[in-house]
Amino acid sequence: MVARRGIRAGARPNDPLPLSARVFAQLADGRFHSGEALAAQLGVSRGAIWKAVRALRGIGTVVHAVPNRGYRMATAAEPLDAAKICEHLSAPARGIVRRIETLWCVASTNSMLLARPNLQFGVSEALLAEYQSAGRGRRGRAWFAPPGGGICLSQSWSFREVPADLGALGLAVGVCVLRALRRAGLAGGLKWPNDILVAGRKLGGILLELRAESAGPACVVIGIGLNAALGEALRQRIATMGLPATDLVSAGVTLSRNVVAAAIIDEVTQGLGRFEREALRPFIEEWRAADVLRGTEIEVHTTAGVARGLARGIDLHGALLLETPQGVRRFISGEVTVRPAS
Question: What's the whole-number mean pLDDT along residues 209-225?
Fold first, then answer.
């Protein structure tokens, strides 16, 4: 465990990493490594290396095997490292984030943080995983990224009581993520309620989950998933589901995932404090400027049915405004699709 200015950074050193994780770390530079050399470095047999590579392929990692050259990952990917993330946090964030933890594989980073006791007010902790076996987005949809292919990040925060406009927190977090991406030289857009887009393609999304007591404190866990390096095959697979996707590598981002993750944690940490004091007000103009739906014909799907009209942005409480023949309607939840041009 490494201590840095009050932040504990760790990767569960008492839990031995599986061989597949250690092989991933060796192959993360994108260069060829012979099976013999990997076996010697990790103290196992060449057969064990072959099985570990097969396990990595089974969870989506593209590993090339070339006779007389060895194994190589298709895309280099610096492994997530809590200490490196801590190093890139600003001083204000270091005073708030109590712990940053990176793990190899969990079912869901959100579920893991939700299962922990509430933090004291005004502090936060973050959890990242290379791979989620049951990662999810809104409405129970699966969210998938192979090791090295994404940033799977959850961050927790305790409010003294449930904010009146808690439903708008996801929009504020979206603005924070865009601020972090700008540090990496990337301009993004926001699609109500929780999608992060680049050039019209989905880069990631946000999932908020709440554990609250009646008239008491509320713990919110903010899940942020960003595509980092999906590879062409996975992008095509996602496209077949009607969700054109992009990733940081395709968008030209050259910074490591650790630097990008630190920027996100940094911006979200500072944003949480402002949201608790001022709700959506400090974020709304940036959100409106990044709104990819405004002025387009859309459909809003809710449990009550489908509403069609012209997107007119959001109000100060985070509700989507839809101009219909019957007047402007407000939506605080729902799924949005863009209507095809006639």
Answer: 84
Contacts of 280 (CB under 8 A, 6+ apart): 165, 168, 171, 172, 287, 316, 317, 318
- Per-residue pLDDT, 4: 35
With tokens 């309607």, the residue in question is 329
Clarify whether residues 131 and 276 are in a common domain.
yes
Beta carbons within 10 angstroms of residue 130's beta carbon: 26
Q: Does 139 lie in the same domain as 25?
A: no
Confidence tier at 217 by pLDDT (50, 70, 90): confident
Residues designated catalytic:
138, 202, 339
User: Burial of 71 by CB count in 10 Å (0-12 exposed, 13-18 middle, 19+ buried)?
Assistant: buried
Whether 281 and 322 share a structural domain: no
Distance of CA 322 to the CA centre of its chain: 28
Cβ atoms within 10 Å of 221's Cβ, excluding its own:
23
Q: Quick one: 100 and 238 in the same domain?
A: yes
Q: What is the pTM of this model?
A: 0.90
| 100 and 238 within one domain | yes
CATH number at residue 52: 1.10.10.10
